[in-house]
UniProtKB/TrEMBL annotation:
Membrane spanning residue stretches: 61-94, 101-123, 129-152
Name of the featured protein: QueT transporter family protein
UniProt source species: Parablautia intestinalis
InterPro entries: QueT
Keywords annotated in UniProt: Membrane, Transmembrane, Transmembrane helix
PANTHER family: INTEGRAL MEMBRANE PROTEIN (PTHR40044:SF1), INTEGRAL MEMBRANE PROTEIN-RELATED (PTHR40044)
Pfam families: QueT
Amino acid sequence: MNMERSPKLMLLVQAAMIAALYVVFTFLANAMGIASQVIQVRFSEALTILPYFTPAAIPGLFIGCLLANILTGCAIPDIVFGSLATLIGAVFTYKLRKNKWLAPVPPILSNVIVVPFVLLYAYGVRPLWFSFITIAIGEVISCGLLGMLLLFTLNKYRSVLFPAEF
């Protein structure tokens, strides 16, 4: 089957690859001990810029985050609300795709708004105001810095990696 003739198959394959990469990168950050510290740096969060390139990234990021949170033993509120924060960030990144500089903003904001409350209610991390600061720092590093590096790198190969127009 020719992928160019089957955009639905292309989207499914892209979503599955993005989900798999998200899980692998989360495990890598966990193995390095930087995914669940005071300042959380998940390499997988750099992938949150992918809705700039393809709508397949929306379900891919959500499923990848959901699986990563389950497989790394997160608390139920983290699994649910952390994954929803990623979904919200992905949807708004896709909606703002006309401007590449806005790509990391939705996932940064959604995680900064949601994750501190998850840390408080699921894990008892206090004080709340400090979690807002540390999550913001981690998200700016993950989404803003690493994500934008990824965006500029992938943009060079955009027509090869993301050939279909949607």
